[in-house]
Task: structure prediction
Amino acid sequence: MPEKTDFDVVVVGAGPAGSTATKWLKDRRPDTRVLLVDKAARIPRDKPCGGFVGPEVLEVFPYLKGKEREFLESESFEGILHSPDLRYQVGGRTKMLGLLRSTFDGYLTKVAQKAGAQLKTGHRVKDIKIESQKATVYFEGRKKVTTRAVVGAEGVVSVVARRTGLHQGWQSNQVCKCVVKEFPVDPEFIKKHLAPNRAVHLYLGFQGTPGYAWFFPKTRHINAGLGCFANHQVRLMDYFRLFIKLLKGWTMLPDSARAEGVSAGLCPTVGPLDTTQSNRVLLIGDAAGFVSPATGAGILPGMISGRLAADTLVEALEHNRFDTEFLTRYQRRWEKHIGRFSSELMVQRIFLTPFCNLFIRIGQQDATIRRLVTRAQSHTAGGSYAQGVSIPRLLGRVAWDLLKGAFGRL
Result:
């Protein structure tokens, strides 16, 4: 008989990944005692994020379909990449759903609670002790709970990952530091200047920074941000103020918009960890590195990782097996369904080369490259971007265009 614990599973972090893992686990095994905890004093809360997700989320998680009014604000139908010198652009048709993280996260948390999970806010994890028959989660303020398994879903700076030895933190060249602001905007301004497509824009290598800036228009908000690799000494706020000034000049932001009051955060950029599980512990979402290296998008792959972790925990509870060997089923699942973002990593490297301007200039004139770039910005049902994009084909097409250009036919 297993030792009696306060809970069967404790999920640390009430973002999309953690709430999804909780909801999925309760749906599949209703008698499971699940505690969902978050360090925020209350839910909903704001998170630094672009707030866009592919429509595939409605297919992968059917319980969201028909509930769009609860959490979605807008749809966008075009994606545009800009060259570092801002002279060239390449884009194409796509579809993205715009949301506010406070609204979306709050809705997902309510769904998890409705499924029967217990939610506790204002609980910051301090330590975790793994024993043969249980795990103990210690919170600030001398609070603690015992559980049979722990899910780390609290983001890029994961206490669960560090305290269990799964990951001691990302190196500065493995994360992107970002500043972002969700600007409230009069819907009439957006209708006049950005409708009907409400195109999303990525500005590669903005002003020479090793990263990109983004512009995501919604219905009542415009999300703008800037990120670069953390190992580069860049005054992000100076670049962000310049970006806002340019957006105003392009009539993409109203003159009343101010750069103050931004949120800051970190985003992993090198794909998932080598190992995402140990005795009684699973990591999901940003804590495990499930973020597209090409676009910085992590909502959908994070939610899928939560679902796959829940599937694994159902089996672990049924067999009373929480050892690393058994929980490796989780890693096999996500390697199959999400993958290691190899295509996205190649796209990232192409975008960060000194030849990025040339690539965008050629793509502006080449329909094949435009189609490949559009595909690189689109999700698969597995949650990854750039799947199906042939990097050799992309580079071959660029080489062919250069060859044609050498003979005066470009």
Summary: The chain has three domains: 7-49+103-170+272-337, 172-268, 342-406. The chain is about 35% helix and 25% strand. The two ends are 73 Å apart (CA to CA). The first strand starts at residue 7 and ends at 12.
